[in-house]
Amino acid sequence: MHITKTDYLEYTYCKKNLWLKKYKPELFQGVELSEFEKKIIEEGNLADEAARHLFPNGQLIEIVGTNAVPVTSTILGTKPPALFQGAFLSDVFFVQADVLRFDAIRNGWELYEVKATTDVKRVVPYHHVNDLAFQKTVIEQSGINIVSTGVIHLNSHYQPHGTLNYNELFVIVDLTDEVRDAEGDVQAQMRDIKAYLGMPEEKGCECLYRGRNAQCTTFHYSNPNVPDYSVHDINRIGGSKKIFFDWIDRGIYRLNDIDNPEVLTGSKKAQYDAYIAGKPIINYSAIQSALDGLIFPLQFFDYEGYSSAIPRFDGFGAYEQVPFQYSLHTLHKDGRLEHKEFLITNPEGDLTLPLVERMRADFDERGSVISWYKSYESQRNTKLAEVHPDYAVFFEALNDRMFDLMTIFSENSYVDAAFKGSASIKNVLPVIIPALSYKALAIRKGDQAIERWEKMIDPTTSQEEKDEIAKDLLAYCTLDTFAMVEIYRFLKTLL
Ligand code: SF4
Question: CA 257, CA 462: separation in Å to the nearest integer?
Fold first, then answer.
């Protein structure tokens, strides 16, 4: 069995997870990567390819895996100016290095790792220094002299106009000293991984002491005694270590078994109380006061945004959200509900100008603008104001009139234990309005909408498929704002 760099990084996050992947891969079958995870991998590959423009006349090893090792060795002997995806195997450890550049003066190779990030990360599992130390160790043990190490990452300040300038798109950070300092610890970890993967399966796993969000899909396999709704589901319980560890040490997993609920405060207490009561806990006066502050017509608004590691649109840099769609439901005082929407289908010219012009026409100058997690919408408004200064006053006015409907739930004015401590509309809606569901839609999540829009604007996609995707995108965004209307109406029935 070979241990790759990905295995090493996996180990730094959770060695039990790595062990299960190697010996019980069936546990991961059927667990598809999310669209978001797939996109991260794809963005990494695109950044890697783009960074090769920084090294003219470099040679690419096209073979993936250990078969590339002898080919690498042959090509290195010819001392090309740069080598991409060179492969090295030492003992059980295997790496393919993004970039090696030959330094004739020092008679050795500069090792670069390309990252589709906008800075150097020094936290597991994305610890760029340790990542390089792992690679350097394997390559040097293969007899190659590494004279320096660095990361090539995206430049967050670069906002292209016209053709991409790769020298401006990337930043090269020399990490030679940090990598040298980290090597000893990383090599100790490498010995530990090898020993750990040679051992029988450990019982349980460390996530027994972590909140639900930190756990992977194998948690129930390793911890079969923990019920589906457990203390792990209490809002941000992983941050309250003293309380949480005490319960786990005493075998308290069910909320009904908590014998010291007085230690809970804030949203944790509210969730516990709602669970024990078996019904929602409602702060009527807080809801009344929030909704009384709204001014008609109520304009329920939502953007969908696209982002990519390698900038694709003028004025938008790496990972900057490009609003490509909106839905707007306007509820009038007399109960009339109107719907307006817009989707960029032809990304040419001044990409977001048609969207901005339509927004200007669709919004009423009066009334509250209601979003869910409003900071997302208000940040997009601010960016659109920057890109289209003629509309800055319009966007500033929108931001001034924004109300975040999510706060009713995130500030515990309405708490249902079935939300499992989350105020996401995807968790709240099915509990409050079970008849309204994303399940029947072709697009059910924001990351899926991004992937679909990218497919829709791809010139190679057939018109028939483009039309189908456009229909699905409009249905998805419509539900986002209609869900807010229905949640608002539901809250009004309580008062
Ligand atoms: S549930 Fe947590 S500790 Fe257990 S294998 Fe998954 S990530 Fe590792």
Answer: 57
